[in-house]
Amino acid sequence: MLDQWLIGGILIVMLALFVLDKWRYDLVAMMALLTAALLGLVPTEEVFSGFGNAAVITVAAVLIISQALWRSGVVDSLASGMRKIGDSRWLQLIALTSVTTLCSAFISNTGTMAIMIPVALQLARSSGNNPSKLLMPMAFGSLLGGAITMVGTPPNIIIADIRREATGESFGIFDFTPVGLAIAVAGLVFMWLLSHWLVPARSGKTKSESLYDVSSYLTELYVPEQSEFIGKTLYELESRSEEDFVIVALQRGDTRWSAPARYQRLEANDVLIVEANAETIQQVIDGTGLELNANEDIDDRFLKSDDITVIEGIVGHDSKLIGRSAADMKLRSRYGINVLGVAREGQKLGTALANIRFKPGDVMLLQGDAETLEDIFQRFGCLPLAQRSLRIGSSKKLLLPLAIFASSIAAAAVGLISVPVAFSLAAGLMVLTNILPLRELYDSIDWPIIVLLGATIPLGSALERSGAADTIADAVVTLSQGSPEFVAIALLLLVTMLLSNIVNNAAAAVLMAPIGISMASSFGASMDPFLMAVAIGAAVPFLTPIGHQSNILVMGPGGYSFSDYWKLGLPLSLLASVVATIMIVLVWPMY
What we know:
DASS-Related_Transporters; RCK_C_sf; five-stranded antiparallel β-sheet; 3 domains; alpha+beta; transmembrane helix; Alpha-Beta Plaits
């Protein structure tokens, strides 16, 4: 009994730290694992056994394959036809959610959304529709799509491997399809018919090309011949202000430099195009003797040149920018990148942009060299919002990656080779054929997820070994006593779904699967319907933005607040629960 209390306490603290989000979830999971090992809840020889688990290897392989398919332009080929669907918001919604759902059944949700968000924004802006009406249904569609196949989402891979360990036989790739496809179809139809009234409209992004009206913050400053700043660097000038004061261009005669180097020295009669508010401009003028020179309206022509560009990007869920500021990262001094704006939940943040600490879902407006920006987005885990402008390597060689992927699915589906071997082999072939360059191999793996899985799998075993899973299962069985067995399945599904909205859905699957197995044992029933309930519950966290990366990615571009998600997510969750419970009972008999 003591072991049950100890493992329960460790897991409760771990889940609480997940919710508080003060430390990254992989670090929290690893510390929970080591604590359990020190208390003797996890045998020494099993502490790191999770990292050799077939589910972890399969997840890594699927992520590599997804990145290869993403680079090859498979999803782009589907997205390219979107321009032909017209200006009808309803038709745009149907097309965008359908393609997103379909692709997410085979490619990672995040990779699919990285391609589809810019497509949706472009469609919305060209037609005058509000993108907030499109982006949330797309994110939820990506979650529905992930439930369709075993490779669609990590929880399905985990559940399949847990079944293999328990029975000696894994779920097949398409064993999830009857239930997953049913909730996907029901969910899509529901969103097509009712999302217009359930998704809040957010203004400010339908008429312009971005979240920011940058031109209203641009001002010309003239360097007179008697200025004390002649011969001094742009860095020295920028340092005179404690507020945001960014030199975005330098005009010297007929020559103009966009995003000029900070070491460039000023000359008489130079004209500086700066981004700052009125108070900061006045402070700089008073302190330097520069003159206001705005004789005409300034637009963003000063922001761009042949080599310099301005682009929006989203801070990803595991970005290296999270918790750090542009000043911390030295984006200007080290990379020559200007931060022109930062928006959070659809609202542009005010002063001191260089000191704003980024959060997942923040939308940044960056100016700099195009190649450098591309490197910044890849290096720091951000996603560009300009459709395909920063993604390279899309050679449109579609047949080879599709053939490799289809062959791996077919080989695993007919039992020729196991799923981990099939997808590891496919990942290797993607690299050997240069569909995915070797230098991008390890970058394509979401390492925090891998560490999370490697750490939580032994914790899930400890939950089962200690008897805590049986205790929780008995409580659920007692709660549903006298009711049909499907009530217990529905309860398990709902609890898992609720948990996946506040912690990583892979962790939710690992922790709830032993409870599902114990519930099946208490009923003397097959574990399959209970495991399937856990898989579906973990795959569809619709209630919060933190439930899944897809939800976070649309938060900034859609201008959503935290409370917006449940308005569509709650009825969609209830619908998915009802449809899933019915289909599980029909497809996976209890006895």
